[in-house]
Amino acid sequence: MDLKTATAIRRLRLVSAPEAISFLLLLVCSVLKRTTDFNAVPVMGMVHGVLFILYVIFWADAWNRTKWSLKTAALYFVLSVLPAGGFFAERKLRREAENAVIASRARQEGVVNA
């Protein structure tokens, strides 16, 4: 994995957890808006919207650089629209990046899979 691909995955990973948190907070704010006088939906909506747009941009960049299959790319996109899905995406992306680093080091050391 080259540096630009690793960076694309890292950016997507770093924005996935905050996007999930903002989604959950937006849901809480929506419930509070309907049950109390507290209305933070406009602010949380904007914060979540910005984070979601960043997630989609970083997702598209990572898909382009990693050459994921359509199934894998669709999975990461679906995780972005599910409450708490960003947490699962972050964990999966972290494992993918760690595996790529291990494979890269093995190639550098000349270790061949038997």
From TrEMBL:
Transmembrane segments: 39-60, 72-89
Membrane topology: Multi-pass membrane protein
An annotated GO cellular component: plasma membrane
Transmembrane helix found in the keyword field: yes
Source superkingdom: Bacteria
InterPro entries reported in the protein's UniProt record: DUF3817_TM
Protein name stated in the entry: DUF3817 domain-containing protein
Taxonomic source organism: Streptomyces tuirus
